């Protein structure tokens, strides 16, 4: 048949990851090394620290995903690697490793945009037979928060983006404000704490709820949390009271989710007004691993008569599968790149 095998390599932020997949989306081998521990120690992603950690892990993730797949580099039909957006020094680690492999084995090479990989991975999963272009997509990660119309591979229209922080960033900053141990990431830590709290305990204002467009803003919400903590007696006082902490976390999350719901609903109306006939929402990016966000957006879709697609949690946060899949999608359309005259791109909308 016309099946082919692709290696995906990812090193744009604080995960070093690789995966080998078949062009039908079957995952043959996968490996991911996270730098959560380092991010915790340094209180954030420090470029040269992250670069060194990628350099230490890159061969391992590539070799072990190949081993998982019982394959040799020479068995690969193509290699896809994230070339941006992200930290340049980090991106280069993945790019160089992928380029060296492609050169050595004369393998087809595909430069991948990390954001497009997040968006497209939904189409790789088995349940995705019905995810056809065009679709509406909400991309929520540590660096991005956007509503997009996806018309085809490489054809997107930005309906709205964040005016300040990305949603994952807001989770991370708020987790730090609350003094949480963020070893496994600020988002998951905050989500876990919020489970024990009352989401209605503190009525934070929903950002821009009187401005019916598709843009986002999370900086004000973060400030509201700061102000609330101060009113409640300050960091030390608040942090000794677990149920108060949980209430703050739950209230933050509730407000963030309501903001998402309003913007997604707005974007759906826009699709209807334009008579696009689009009625599928794809949610992607690291924050799409959040169980509350998943359920709430699913029910927005149900209410509007839309279908909702969210990748399994392990494909939401950064991974090699999404990069390999984005390469599959490009190769199917005859898009490949010349690996000799490329460079990574810190910004790549
Ligand atoms: O897509 P991703 O892995 O990396 C980027 O491309 O940015 O997203 C990472 C972001 C982090 O900000 C992390 O805190 C957030 O996604 N995140 C979550 C959850 N899991 C990851 N935020 C809220 N709830 C979660 N369960
Ligand atoms: Zn990402």
TrEMBL record:
Domain Gcp-like: start-end pairs: 27-325
Keywords: Acyltransferase, Cytoplasm, Iron, Metal-binding, Mitochondrion, Transferase, tRNA processing
GO terms, biological process: tRNA threonylcarbamoyladenosine modification
Primary localization class, coarse: mitochondrion
Free-text remark on how the cofactor is bound: Binds 1 divalent metal cation per subunit.
GO MF terms held by the record: metal ion binding; tRNA N(6)-L-threonylcarbamoyladenine synthase activity
Assigned GO CC terms: mitochondrion
EC numbers: 2.3.1.234
Enzymatic reactions: L-threonylcarbamoyladenylate + adenosine(37) in tRNA = N(6)-L-threonylcarbamoyladenosine(37) in tRNA + AMP + H(+)
Compartments in which it is found: Mitochondrion
Cofactor: a divalent metal cation
Subunit-structure text: Homodimer.
Protein family per UniProt: Belongs to the KAE1 / TsaD family.
Function: Required for the formation of a threonylcarbamoyl group on adenosine at position 37 (t(6)A37) in mitochondrial tRNAs that read codons beginning with adenine. Probably involved in the transfer of the threonylcarbamoyl moiety of threonylcarbamoyl-AMP (TC-AMP) to the N6 group of A37. Involved in mitochondrial genome maintenance.
The protein's name: N(6)-L-threonylcarbamoyladenine synthase
The species this protein was found in: Chondrus crispus (Carrageen Irish moss)
Lineage summary: Eukaryota, Rhodophyta, Florideophyceae, Rhodymeniophycidae, Gigartinales
Positions spanned in the full protein: 105 to 453 of 470
